[in-house]
Amino acid sequence: MSTRTRVIIVGSKGRMGEALMRLAQADPALELIGGVDRDDDLNTIVDRCDVLIEFAHHSVTPGLVDLALARNKPLVIGTTGHTTEERARIEAAAAKLPIVWAPNYSVGVNLLFYLTRLAAATLGDAFDQEVIEMHHHHKLDAPSGTARRLGEILAQAGGGSYEELVRNGRAGDVGARSKKEIGMHALRGGDVVGDHTVVFAGSGERVELTHKASSRDTFAGGALRAAAWVRTQQPGLYSMQDVLGFGKK
Ligand code: NAD
After folding, report:
1. Tens digits of per-residue pLDDT, 220-238?
2. Which of 174, 221, 238, 242 is in the most buried spot, having the most CB atoms within 10 Å?
3. Among candidates 192, 218, 186, which has minimal Cα distance to 136?
């Protein structure tokens, strides 16, 4: 086994792909085998890598998962916006393959996940919970994968599922806010890399937890760290919390 982890970047010409290619090239722990984008054939180089890293489009993931299973290549998935069926495909593949799948690879956001869980458990039902995210105007999916994960954490703490409790935006004659609902709001504009705020609004006080990313390098660096980590893991579905040693997501 080579000491350096050999990686291939899928979605190499995108905003994240550019950052991943640049950082992987400069990382002494990694060997960049190459990048593939829309018009390239991954089959010709896949056997030369230890780990596949994907930041492309949600429709790309199922085919990539099949290829990774066939060639026994651990995966790092950064893409967001998957359908329920695509999510199930990833989960099923993890029975046979180590996969890191995280909506956000930054250390700061993973701390935000942890703090959100802690705040929800501490403040409880007495505080109304809302999530606000903002991203650049090119972003295709909404709410962001990170906002969705924050919603899942809040829903879990509230004793329900994301589908039951999350309310996306409000318009018209919506009536008073129910105690259990979790408001979800997606802003789009300019070149914002990624802002997330979780609001806990109580009677007479309000707590807001905010993370703001100012460079994609923070996600790319985390994903490359995950690639070196996942190479030596047993089959299973892992989050960035596992890579960082924060425990299960
Ligand atoms: P982007 O549109 O700039 O790049 C996507 C790239 O994927 C493009 O170059 C596109 O040509 C390529 N692509 C599309 N179909 C392909 C295919 N079949 N095979 C290979 N490449 C293909 O998007 P982006 O801003 O780089 O984001 C990519 C994904 O990563 C999005 O889902 C985004 O939400 C997600 N993202 C995740 C994190 C994280 O930390 N997990 C951080 C930022 C972005």
Report:
1. 999 999 999 999 999 999 9
2. 238
3. 192
pLDDT exceeds cutoff 70 at 37: yes
Q: What are phi and psi of 192, to 5 degrees?
A: -60, 125
Cα separation, 200 vs 203, whole angstroms: 10
Q: Confidence class of residue 56 from pLDDT cuts 50, 70 and 90?
A: very high
How far, in Å, is the centroid of ligand 1 from the Cα of 80? 9
* Residue 139 annotated among the catalytic residues of the structure: yes
How remote is the CA of residue 85 from the centroid of ligand 1, in Å?
Answer: 19
Is pTM beyond 0.85? Reply is yes
Mutate to test the pocket of ligand 1, among 55, 87, 214 (most ligand atoms within 8 A of CB): 55
pLDDT of 247 reads 59
Q: Residues spanned by CATH 3.40.50.720 within the chain?
A: 5-105+216-244
Q: How many whole angstroms separate alpha carbon 128 and alpha carbon 136?
A: 27
Mutation test of ligand 1: which of 8, 10, 15 has the most ligand atoms closer than 8 Å to its C-beta?
Answer: 15
Let me know: does 224 contact 1? Beta carbons within 8 Å. no
pLDDT at 249 over 50: no
Determine the topology of domain 5-105+216-244 in CATH: Rossmann fold (3.40.50)
Ligand 1 mean position to 122 CA, how many Å? 36
CATH number attached to the domain at 107-213: 3.30.360.10
